[in-house]
Amino acid sequence: MRDQIEGSQAVAAAVGLCRPQVICAYPITPQTHIVEALGLRVRRGDLAPCEFINVESEFAAMSVAIGASAAGSRAYTATASQGLLYMAEAVYNAAGLGLPLVMTVANRAIGAPINIWNDHSDSMALRDAGWIQLYAADNQEAVDLHIQAFRLAETLSVPVMVCVDGFTLTHAVEEIDVPDQAHVDAFLPSFAPRQQLDPDAPETIGAMVGPEAFTEVRFLAHHRLRQALALIPVIAAEFADVFGRRRGGLIESYRMDDAETAVVIQGSASGTLCDVIDVLRDEGIRIGALTVTTFRPFPLQQVTAALSSAQRVVVIDRALSTGSGGFLAADIGPALAPHTPWHSVIAGLGGRPVTQGALRHCLGEAVAGTLDELTFLDLDMGVVQQELLSLGLDLQGR
Amino acid sequence: MFGVRIHGRGGQGVVTAAEMLSVAAFLDGHHAQAFPSFGSERMGAPVVAFCRFDQQPIRSHDPIAEPDAVIVQDPTLLHQVDLFAGLGPSGYVLINTEHSFDDLGLGELERTMHPDHLLTVPGTEMAQRHIGRPVPNTVLLGGFVELTGSIGLPSVIAAIQRRFPGAQGEANANAATEAAAYVRAEREALSCA
After folding, report:
1. What is the ipTM of this complex?
2. Is the pLDDT of residue A350 over 60?
C-alpha cells in the first residue's frame, strides 16, 4: 500500500513481510527505529513464530544470527557505524560459512571523532568481507532491495548487506509503497537451507583450512559471489513482474545516452544528482549519472559498457579511503578507456549535506576542465589552512 | 515544488510537524517528503525540519536551501539563528508569537516582502488552551495552510489525528482549526486596511 511513512518503518515492514524466523540486533543510531519497529511487531505476535533475540552487543548480534541461520532459520539483523566494526570478525564468518543472512546497514560515519551522521565509511570498511552489498538510492528502493536480498541470499547461500543512508533515508518520511503479503509470498519462497545443523545428523561447518586449500576456498567464494552478477538482474526483473516496478539491479543509468560527462554515485545522493543533471542538461551540457546499486560483487563489465562513450568521468564517494581517495573511484578506474580524464570527489562525510548547489558547482568545474583529480566537496579551506599553519605545515604533497 | 522549513527547539515537536505536513500533502494528492536536520536531540536546542511537496515525484534528499515558507515555532530563535536564509521576497513567514513583526525587530522583513505573506500567531497560548501543553506545532500547521493555501485544512486535520489518535488528536485538531480561523481573520483585516 502506498503511504507516507518513515524510511525505517518501511524497511521494518518489508523485513517483516519476508517472514524472518530470527531477528537479533543491538540498537545503534541511526538503525534504532528499524529494530524497534521489528521488536514491536514480534512482541505483538504479528511475525509469529519469529523470535526476537536481545543481545548484549553487535558481535553477539551477528554471532546469534550466524547460529540461527546455521540451524536453518531465516535470520536478520541490522546495525551501523561502530556497531558494524564491532561485529566485523563475525561478518566475515557469516560469508565464509555461506550463510544467507540479510543485514541492514543504516550508513553512518566512524569515529574518532565521534559522529552519528551519515556517510558510507562503515559499509565500505566491510566491503571485502564476502557479502553482497546493495546500496539504496531512496526509501522505495530500500524496501524493494530487502525483499530481493532474501531471495538473492538464499539462492546463492551468500549473506547480503542492504546499505541505507542513515538519517537521510532512515529518518525521512516519504511516499513509499510497502507491498502486501501475498505478493511477497509469491516472490519469496520459504527458506530451504542448503546446510543445516542437526543434532540427529551431526556435521561440522567452518572447520580449519590450511595452506593446501585456503586459496581454493577463497577462489570458490569469489566465484560464488560473482554469480550474483548474473542473478541480480534476473531477480530484479522477476521483482518487476510481480510488483510492477523496476528497482534494484546492478547499475542505474540516467540520461547517459549522449553524455560526454558521466557522474558515478551511490546511495541517497543519487536523486539529488539526477535533479542537478536535469538543470545542467537544460543548460545544454551533455551529462548523465550512473548509480551503482550493486557494489559487491563489483559489476565491472556493466560499468565499463555504461561509461564507454564518456569523455570525462566524475566519481562521487561518500567515504574516504584515508591516504588514497575514493573507494568507488578506485573500482571505477579500471572501467575507463585509457586516457579518459576522471575525477574523484569525496562528498557528504559525517552528515555534511550533498547539496544541489555544491554538486552544480563541482560538476561545472569538471565540465570546464578545472576540477582537481581529488576534490573534497564543500571543503572549508580556511579551516584547513589555519590548522596546517598552526602545525607549521602547508598543503604541499596532498 | 513547495519547500517549507520549520524552526524550533527540541521538545516543541518540530520534526513531528514536518512529518504531519508531509502526510497532509500526501493526503492532498501531492508527492511529499519530510526530514529533520538531524542534530543530536536535546531539549531546548535549536532544531530544523524540512518538508517539500510537489506534483512530481521528489528525488532530491538535500536540505531545502531556498524555502517557499518558514515556520518559526520559537521566537527566541530570532536573531540567534539565520531563520530566513534563502527565503525569496515572495516567500511566506509564520511566527509563533503574541508580538508583531515590528515588535520583534523584523520591520525590515515586512517592508521587503509581501505584507500578506507574513503573519504572527499566538500559537503557544492556543496550544495551552486546547491541548494543555505549550507545544505549538499542530497549531501552526493550521495557520500555515490558511496562510499559504498550499494544502487543505481537512488534510492537516487528518494528518494530525493519524499522528495523535483519540482525544489528544481532537484537541490538536481544534487548536489547528482555531489557528486557521485566526489567520483568516487577520488576513481579512489586512485586506480591508
Report:
1. 0.95
2. yes
Q: At what angle do helices B137-148 and B166-192 cross, to 10 degrees?
A: 40
Alpha-carbon gap, residue B86 to B148, rounded angstroms? 18
- Contacts B32 to A, Cβ<8 Å: 4, 173-175
Confidence (pLDDT) at B59: 97
Q: What is the DSSP letter of B98?
A: S
Query: Quick one: pLDDT at residue B108?
Result: 87
Residues B170-191, mean pLDDT to the nearest whole number: 94
User: Which residue bears the cell 521587503?
Assistant: B112
Question: Is B34's Cβ below 8 Å from some Cβ in A?
Answer: yes
CATH superfamily placement of domain B2-192:
Pyruvate-ferredoxin oxidoreductase, PFOR, domain III (3.40.920.10)
Of A99, A96, A114, give the one whose Cα is nearest residue A29. A114
Calpha distance A261→A343 (Å, rounded): 11
Sign, CA dihedral A287-A291-A296-A301, equals negative
* SS3 per-residue string spanning A322-335: CCCECHHHHHHHHH
Tell whether the model's pLDDT for residue B117 goes beyond 70.
Answer: yes
Q: Please tell me the distance from the alpha carbon of residue A176 to that of residue B20, in angstroms, as a whole number.
A: 15
Per-residue confidence (pLDDT) for residue B41, from 0 to 100: 66
- For A172, name the nearest residue in chain B, comparing CA atoms only: B35
Residue closest to A181 by CA, chosen among A45, A19, A32, A294: A19
CB contact under 8 A, B35 and A268: no
Nearest CA in chain A to B16: A173
Decide if A28 is inside a domain: yes
Domain match, A239 and A296 both = no
Residue B22 touches partner A, C-beta closer than 8 Å: yes
Task: Establish if B97 touches chain A: CB-CB under 8 angstroms.
Answer: no
Starting at the edge strand found earlier in the chain, the sheet holding A22-25 runs: A51-54, A22-25, A75-79, A102-107, A160-165, A132-135, A294-296
The pLDDT tens digits for A31-70 are 999 999 999 999 999 999 999 999 999 999 999 999 999 9
Distance from CA of A251 to the nearest CA of B (A): 17
- Residues with Cβ < 8 Å from A26, sequence gap 6 or more? A55, A56, A57, A58, A60, A61, A79, A83
**pLDDT band of A276, cuts 50, 70, 90:** very high
pLDDT band at A134 (very low <50, low <70, confident <90, very high): very high
Q: What are the helix (H) ranges across B118-192?
A: 123-131, 137-148, 153-163, 166-192
CATH number at residue A271: 3.40.50.920
pLDDT category of residue A395 using cuts at 50, 70 and 90: confident
Q: How far A3 CA sits from the closest chain B CA (Å)?
A: 8
pLDDT recorded at residue A314? 98
What stretches of chain A show up as alpha helix (H) in DSSP? 7-17, 32-44, 58-70, 81-86, 88-96, 121-125, 139-156, 181-187, 214-243, 269-282, 300-306, 327-332, 356-368, 381-390
Whole-structure pTM value: 0.96
Cell of A28: 545503534
State the residue range of the domain holding A203: 2-243
pLDDT over 70, % of chain A: 99
